[in-house]
Amino acid sequence: MTNSALFDTFARAPLEFVKGEGAWLYTRTGEAYLDFAAGIAVNSLGHAHPHLVAALTGQAGRLWHVSNLYHVEGQRIAAERLTGATFADRVFFTNSGAEALECAIKTARRHQHVHGSPERYRIITFEGAFHGRTLATIAAGGQKKYLEGFGPAVEGFDQVPLGDIDAVSRAVGPQTAAILIEPVQGEGGIREVPAAFMQELRRICDEHGLLLILDEVQSGAGRTGRFFAHEWSGVSPDIMAIAKGIGGGFPVGACLATEEVAAAMTPGVHGTTFGGNPLAMAVVNAVLDILLADGFLDEVARKGLLFRQGLASVCDEFPQLFSEVRGRGLLLGLKCVFENTRVNAAFRDEKLLVVPAGENVLRILPPLNVSDDEIRIGLDRIRAAARTLTGAANG
Ligand SMILES: *Cc1c(COP(=O)(O)O)cnc(C)c1O
User: Where are the strands (E) in the chain, listed by range?
Assistant: First the structure.
């Protein structure tokens, strides 16, 4: 399992899976792993969900791709459903989260441009943020380790500490176009932005004619127990980037915006070859069938509380290993006392998959349709790994 002919860009675990079903992944030799990584919050309905498989295979037999030279029925339907369930009036479909952010950034700049403020192109972003790996999104994220060696960073991002409202106010200038924030930082370590801070950002945006852009690529699509995480704060954005869970494992993203803001994006100013193709749209619509069904998101919230309580007891039992539970719904984090990569490996030895994040946190991201039983199995495996780790620490 070496990376022979591949770019060596990923530090992969020594594992390869050939099959998945629900919350479970299987190796070639049939070993079963409990998948609470969910492809980094992507497999929102687990693996091989029958409704998604039927939607994709049905569409595959009819029509794969036509480009955006023509109307695509699935796009129209998915956009109507997304706007019907959110603040937004318009949608642009992409293939990934980073592309959704690119569209969001371009839309914000373009909106200021057509409203007589072409000098307003700068965007305020936050320390610890992650917005993707394109040139603009690494500049937006502002992390040195992702910017180094790639030439001058794309101009126009001003980064301030998360939670520092005075720093935000000070960063607003005559060239500021927008504020960009994740309602819950995912890669950053499941850092939830308090509702009061979100409300302050909205106030600053309204006061200065700035747009509020939310990156809900990871926190959205039902992950926190609401359709989108910002709903917990009562704050509405002007633009929102989504991806990951909305495709349930099919590569798809979208940029959502209000009518007023999207009006700046006229024919020819932005585009994509693959974005919103019929295969992707068939899957998005199938995912929406389930996420938006009565009671589904309430169940995510309930299971999130159940899991959180279990993790809180794990923290009480093993204070030498875990210091804190973070997050909401099924976007959960366990802050580790020693290296999260070592704890991650111990979980893996117990056949439990999770995802390391910033601030020495392990992200726990089960499929949203995980069962109570599977949550209990996950907690048992975390305890087993913790016993091994404390045994190793003591001996
Ligand atoms: C994953 C992620 C992205 C980038 O998405 P890609 O599909 O990898 O381009 C952007 N923002 C957030 C918050 C993410 O979690």
Answer: 17-21, 24-27, 32-35, 90-94, 122-126, 157-160, 176-181, 184-185, 191-192, 211-215, 239-242, 253-257, 322-328, 331-336, 352-353, 355-357, 361-364
